[in-house]
Design a protein that fits this description.
239 residues, 15% strand, Nucleotidyltransferase, domain 5, 2 domains, single chain, five-stranded mixed β-sheet
């Protein structure tokens, strides 16, 4: 599955008041692996930036004077995200701004271009009700390094969101066993691979108490997110 982790920075909080996108970034992931492909552009909004927004992202109007307008990059951006699932933290905000920009160009809403839209804020609220679920809080909760995030920036935030998403959804992907052999690097793991290696001596490393606790926390999160359908938790027999 192809996914694009998306973030924007804007001149203010309300696109309905004429605020515009000033930075947009998307980071590509395919089958839960980052591809190192990304889209990133600063944009000239042709208007002032609210002081509150400037304090958050530090992007000044003077810096943006010689940057392209959204209209200049719209086709390239849409080609990059086409047919992918967009993964966004607080998707309502970014999608609202994107659709407002597209409407100014008489272009169709972003949802007509992408296959789906995933809101990681809604996902986090389901997993951790009653807790802080902003990006910084999730980085702390899942051990994702955000030490470079002194100010908001679309590209850095998109990259961080990709790591947070992988941590939030771990255990849901197909299980792939690491055979512990550097010679296997770059080789697709198939059933035949396991047959060829089944007679190798296997190193068994027991989980530490800390790892067991962390594992139980992950299972509890999956159990909550799946509404009681976690396959790795024991169930009482009905008989």
């Amino acid at each position: 599955m192809r996914q694009i982790f998306l973030d924007t920075e804007t001149t203010g909080l309300e696109h309905k008041l004429g605020h515009r996108i000033i930075e947009i970034a998307g980071v590509e992931m395919f089958n839960r692996r980052l591809t190192n492909r990304h889209f990133h552009s600063y944009l000239n909004p042709e208007r002032d930036i609210d002081a509150g927004a400037l304090a958050v992202h530090g992007i000044s109007r003077e810096f943006l004077v010689d940057k392209p307008r959204f209209a200049d990059v719209a086709v390239e951006f849409l080609d990059f995200v086409r047919s992918a699932e967009l993964v966004i933290h607080n998707a309502t905000f970014d999608i609202g701004f994107l659709n407002a920009e597209l409407a100014l160009l008489d272009m169709a809403p972003i949802g007509t271009v992408c296959s789906a839209i995933c809101d990681t804020l809604r996902m986090a609220k389901d997993l951790h009700p009653g807790k802080k679920n902003n990006l910084n809080a999730l980085c702390e909760r899942y051990g994702v390094d955000n030490s470079q995030r002194t100010l908001h920036g679309a590209l850095l935030d998109a990259e961080i969101l990709a790591e947070v998403y992988l941590a939030m959804t771990r255990g849901q992907e197909s299980l792939i066993i690491d055979l512990g052999d550097d010679n296997n690097a770059g080789i697709e793991v198939t059933s035949n691979t396991f047959v060829a290696n089944r007679h190798r001596p296997q190193l068994v490393r027991r989980a530490s108490p800390e790892e067991i606790v962390a594992h139980e926390d992950v299972l509890a999160s999956i159990e909550q997110f799946s509404k009681g359908k976690c396959l790795w938790l024991p169930r009482e027999s009905s008989g």
